[in-house]
């Protein structure tokens, strides 16, 4: 590729209309529907632990734990976390097995605004359990100026 073709391609990209990705409550509901299909999602067995008031959305602690015996016949297969207002509705999915011993995931995430967070646990028998939390973010992620 020569310089002229590179610059022409770059110009085309610059001129195309650009809209940043943005999750919405409807996008989150659609992402959850794609995961669970027509299955019932029961609001039991899952605990979503995160602060209700977040000063800085750049690093938000989040822990999801699920009541499960974690045996070969009955275990949490995956934990999925969704949000309403970040660029994408899927925050993360973590795969587990009986060898984990405990169905618990802890991490830090970025939040771009005050919103609802939903955690869904998928069990080995195909059932889904959930918990949600409404969080208020006073300083959104990626919006503070660099010093």
Uncertain residue segments: none
Text of the CATH class: Mainly Beta
Write the CATH homologous superfamily. Answer: SoxY domain
Helical proportion? 10-25%
Number of domain units:
1
β-strand number: 9
* Average of per-residue pLDDT values: 87
- Class computed from helices, strands and strand pairing: alpha+beta
Number of helices: 2
Oligomer: single chain
Give a quick account of the main beta sheet: strands, pairing sense, barrel closure.
Answer: 6 strands, mixed
Q: Might you state the CATH topology name?
A: Immunoglobulin-like
Encode the helix/strand succession as letters. HHEEEEEEEEE
CATH architecture: Sandwich
Features of this protein?
Immunoglobulin-like, 17% helix, 3-stranded antiparallel β-sheet, alpha+beta
Walk me through the structure.
The protein has 147 residues and is α+β, with helices and mostly antiparallel strands. The chain has a single domain (22-137), classed as SoxY domain (Immunoglobulin-like, Sandwich). 17% of the residues lie in helices and 37% in strands. It is built from two helices and nine strands; from the N terminus they run H-H-E-E-E-E-E-E-E-E-E. The protein has helices spanning 3-15, 25-36; strands at residues 41-42, 46-49, 53-54, 60-66, 76-83, 90-95, 103-109, 115-123, 128-137. Strands 1, 3, 5, 6, 8 and 9 form a six-stranded mixed beta sheet that branches. It is globular. The relative contact order is 0.24. The model has no long low-confidence stretch (mean pLDDT 87).
């Amino acid at each position: 590729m020569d310089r002229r073709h590179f610059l022409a391609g770059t110009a085309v990209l610059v001129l195309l209309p650009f809209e940043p990705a943005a999750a919405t409550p409807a996008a989150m509901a659609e992402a959850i529907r794609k995961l669970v299909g027509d299955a019932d999602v029961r609001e039991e067995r899952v605990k979503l632990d995160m602060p209700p008031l977040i000063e800085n959305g750049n690093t938000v602690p989040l822990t999801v734990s699920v009541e499960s015996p974690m045996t070969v016949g009955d275990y949490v297969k995956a934990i999925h976390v969704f949000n309403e207002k970040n660029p994408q509705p899927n925050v993360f999915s973590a795969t587990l097995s009986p060898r984990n011993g405990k169905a618990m995931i802890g991490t830090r995430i970025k939040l771009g605004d005050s919103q609802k967070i939903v955690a869904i646990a998928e069990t080995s028998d195909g059932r889904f359990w959930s918990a949600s939390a409404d969080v208020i973010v006073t300083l959104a992620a990626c919006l503070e100026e660099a010093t």
